[in-house]
From TrEMBL:
Organism of derivation: Schleiferilactobacillus perolens DSM 12744
CDD domains: WHTH_GntR
Keyword Transcription in record: yes
SMART domains named in the record: HTH_GNTR
Protein known as: GntR family transcriptional regulator
PROSITE patterns in UniProt: HTH_GNTR
Length: 131
């Protein structure tokens, strides 16, 4: 597993670590039972504070992605479809809220937002809109 962090990303480093590990788990790159690097080893590899990696692993445990076993390490938990779907829904909702806030600032009508979303869906599905 390769984790890359940036001080210039505008996202806290612990969050960058969490996001990359969650993505790897949800994509199936990290399967159930996989032992993650130790907190100290990851901190050393990334040249960051142990406190930062501890926060990332703690948050991942709270969210149900890993199990931190004292003295043994952090292991990837199995992801049932309900947990994966709930996580995806929360993430989508957050992005839609951000988009809505940006649209309100720019005074873009709700109808135009619906049109944008329909256009994006059509582009993803390969539908050119001609029905």
């Amino acid at each position: 597993m390769r984790i890359v962090v940036s001080n210039k990303a505008g996202i806290p480093i612990y969050q960058q670590i969490e996001d990359q590990i969650k993505t790897a788990i949800l994509a199936g790159d990290l399967v159930e039972g996989t032992l993650l690097p130790s907190i100290r080893q990851l901190a050393k590899d990334l040249q960051i504070s142990v406190i930062t990696t501890t926060r990332a692993y703690h948050d991942l445990e709270e969210q149900g992605f890993v199990n931190n076993v004292q003295g043994k390490g952090s292991y990837v938990l199995g992801q049932d479809s309900a947990l994966v779907q709930e996580h995806a829904l929360r993430e989508i909702e957050a992005h839609l809220s951000d988009a809505l806030a940006a649209a309100q600032l720019a005074k873009i009508p709700v109808h135009d937002l619906h049109t944008m979303l329909d256009t994006l869906i059509a582009a993803e599905s390969g539908d050119d809109g001609d029905r």
